[in-house]
């Protein structure tokens, strides 16, 4: 896989279950943001003594029907609790809190103001319910300017507060990422000419990557901002050596014909570990006939007694597959003994065993 393939666009199909799952996730995410936003309006309005008649996520704008038969009602879910009707509308593009005396139509507001002042030139245009609501002590319009400002601003404020908490939860949970380690290069590209395979990148243009917060994908941004034709200074270090070296790599435009970005032609390193999925071992391959059999999750730590080099990522030991490939090339057409570390499913403890391949 080349560096440019990391930004290939995902394909969408109405017949693909993953596409529908993506839609559901987007709708849920938008709905959560809307719910928090409207909850801010609702709670502050209640705190200010405003009567809230409705609290909806999604707009109950229309029914879906054939003729006079309603197939899907405009209110997918609704229930009354106290003085407020809560519900989910059919159109998942917003939400609202209906407060007593709240009017969003400027002309209706003007007519109501004229009626309250006894100066209405068009009495027929005045909504009596709007007039009564405007003078109700629990009306939105009956509140002070500061209270109305607080109610209107509460939605955005709640979204900002929730963003801080969501970010804290995300950082606490942790996010997996590929470190700035080079597993492959595009033949003829800048990284290939600099022999960067099997190296970790320690710094880019003087900015260090040793803090553990520089994922491999950040190189896309660094390279794009650097621009084509301008050399990038990188400090790299081989996995099996403590000696680093400084190289100059010049991004090349159109290295991948379908991607109009300046690239250096690298792909991330992978761990020398058997995948966790059921299809992680290719049928009829040498690994499939190993004795004893490999198991998903096996961590390869040595070949013919020669241990693979390691480097640390956030306290976890990673053995690069690049070095494993080099060692297997040396033993081509020969049987090898691969030492793996495996977690015992019964005891939960790690155990080491040799597998003949």
List keywords for this structure.
29% helix, four-stranded mixed sheet, alpha+beta, 357 residues
Quick structural summary:
The chain is of the alpha+beta class. Helix content is 29%, strand content 27%.
**SSE series:** HEEEEEEHHHEHEEHEEEEEEEEEHEE
Instruction: Identify the strand order in the major beta sheet.
Output: 4-5-1-6
User: Structural class of the helix and strand makeup?
Assistant: alpha+beta
Cα separation of the termini: 26 Å
Radius of gyration: 31 Å
Number of strands: 20
Main β-sheet description: 4 strands, mixed
Q: Give the low-confidence spans.
A: 1-10
Task: Give the overall form.
Answer: elongated
Can you give the helix content as a percent range?
A: 25-40%
Strand content: 25-35%
Describe this structure in words.
With 357 residues, the chain is of the alpha+beta class. Helices cover 29% and strands 27% of the residues. The protein has seven helices and 20 strands. The strands form seven sheets. It has a four-stranded mixed sheet with strand order 4-5-1-6, with helices on one face. Strand 8 (199-204) and strand 9 (207-208) form a beta hairpin. Helix 1 packs across helix 4. The radius of gyration is 31 Å and the shape is elongated. The two termini are 26 Å apart.
Write the layout of secondary structure elements.
Elements: H1 17-47, E1 52-59, E2 64-66, E3 69-72, E4 75-81, E5 84-89, E6 91-99, H2 106-116, H3 128-135, H4 145-173, E7 182-185, H5 190-193, E8 199-204, E9 207-208, H6 218-226, E10 232-238, E11 245-249, E12 252-253, E13 262-263, E14 266-268, E15 299-303, E16 306-307, E17 311-313, E18 316-318, H7 321-330, E19 337-343, E20 350-356
Parallel strand pairs: 1-5
Antiparallel strand pairs: 1-6, 2-3, 4-5, 7-14, 8-9, 8-10, 10-11, 12-13, 15-16, 15-19, 17-18, 19-20
Helix pairs in contact: 1-4
């Amino acid at each position: 896989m080349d560096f440019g393939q990391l930004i290939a666009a995902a394909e969408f199909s109405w017949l693909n279950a993953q596409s529908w799952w993506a839609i559901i996730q987007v709708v849920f995410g938008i709905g959560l943001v809307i719910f928090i936003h409207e909850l801010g309006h609702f709670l502050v309005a209640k705190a200010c003594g405003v009567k809230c008649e409705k609290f909806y996520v999604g707009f109950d704008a229309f029914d879906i029907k054939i003729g006079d038969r309603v197939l899907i009602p405009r209110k997918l879910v609704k229930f009354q609790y106290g003085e407020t009707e809560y519900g989910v509308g059919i159109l998942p593009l917003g939400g609202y809190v209906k407060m007593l005396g709240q009017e969003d139509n400027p002309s209706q507001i003007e007519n109501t103001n004229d009626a309250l002042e006894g100066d209405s030139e068009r009495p027929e245009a005045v909504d009596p319910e709007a007039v009564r609501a405007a003078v109700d002590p629990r009306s939105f319009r009956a509140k002070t300017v500061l209270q109305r400002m607080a109610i209107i601003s509460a939605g955005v404020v709640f979204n900002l507060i929730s963003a801080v908490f969501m970010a804290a939860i995300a950082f606490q949970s942790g996010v997996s990422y590929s470190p700035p380690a080079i597993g492959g290069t595009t033949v003829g590209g800048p990284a290939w000419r600099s022999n960067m395979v099997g190296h970790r990148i320690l710094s880019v243009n003087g900015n260090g990557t040793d803090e553990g917060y520089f994922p491999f994908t950040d190189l896309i941004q660094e390279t794009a901002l650097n621009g084509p034709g301008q050399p990038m200074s990188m400090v790299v270090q081989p996995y099996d050596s403590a000696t680093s070296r400084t190289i100059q790599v010049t991004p090349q435009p159109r290295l991948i014909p379908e991607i109009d970005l300046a690239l250096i032609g690298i792909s991330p390193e992978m761990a020398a570990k058997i995948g966790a999925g059921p299809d992680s071992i290719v049928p009829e391959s040498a690994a499939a006939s190993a004795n004893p059999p490999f198991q998903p999750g096996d961590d390869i730590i040595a070949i013919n007694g020669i241990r693979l080099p390691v480097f640390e990522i956030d306290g976890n030991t990673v053995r690069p597959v690049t070095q494993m490939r080099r060692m297997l090339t040396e033993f081509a057409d020969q049987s090898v003994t691969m030492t793996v570390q495996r977690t015992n499913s019964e005891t939960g403890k790690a155990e080491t065993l040799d597998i003949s391949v």
